[in-house]
Amino acid sequence: MNEDQNTLTLREYPIVLWIIGLFMIISGAVWTVASPQTRLFAVMDLILSLVFFLFPKALTVTADRTAQMVTLEYRGLLGRSKKEVPIQDVAAVQLQVTRDSKGGSMYRIAMVCKDGKTIPFHSYYSSGASGKQKKVDQLRAFLGVGGQDIGVGGMAGALQMVHEQLQEQVRALSGGEGDEHVTDGIHWRLQTPAIDG
Questions:
Q1: Rounded to the nearest 5°, which phi and psi values hold at 60?
Q2: pLDDT reading at 155 higher than 50
Q3: Can you tell me whether residue 16 is helix, strand or coil?
Q4: What value does the mean pLDDT take over residues 44-72?
Q5: d(Cα 162, Cα 105) in Å, to the nearest integer?
Q6: Segment 86-103, tens digit of pLDDT
Q7: Is the distance from CB of 76 to CB of 54 less than 8 angstroms?
Q8: 8 A C-beta contact, residue 119 and residue 92
Q9: Integer-rounded Cα radius of gyration of the chain
Q10: What is the distance between the alpha carbons of residues 160 and 95, in angstroms, rounded to a whole number?
């Protein structure tokens, strides 16, 4: 983590995938030397190990108050990509939770925009809740946004957050409850409709 008053930088490296790839390269080499009959398996193992090195990408998240932008930059051996989101569009930062096939929890970080669009930092979920929660907390504090951490069965919290955002937008569009206006001598007042949750 790198932080000054106007910039917060967080980094994530796919270390576990790189370790798996390294282990598979070593096991493929051992198979080739120990038993020449298993060379086909060794070649398949080496090819699969390349997947663990080529496709995972390191992520750098930079929140910059001066540029008013949150940048997600992905770097890997097969190239780079970048997503930029204006800070004023970010409504929340969430720690999303799902269950794996054995019933364990897996996590990922996502930003929720004011238009309701969700931008996950990764397409996949992984272990390590405490490290991800720390990053979520840092981003929330730096951006001045909230968020609810959503797990399996936690959609009620997400719907409540969307409901509150919708109520806020309705109030912003319709003005305050007590605003009285005069048009051609006619006094009128616009009331904010209630949206039931």
A1: -120, 120
A2: no
A3: helix
A4: 87
A5: 25
A6: 999 999 999 999 887 787
A7: yes
A8: no
A9: 24
A10: 16
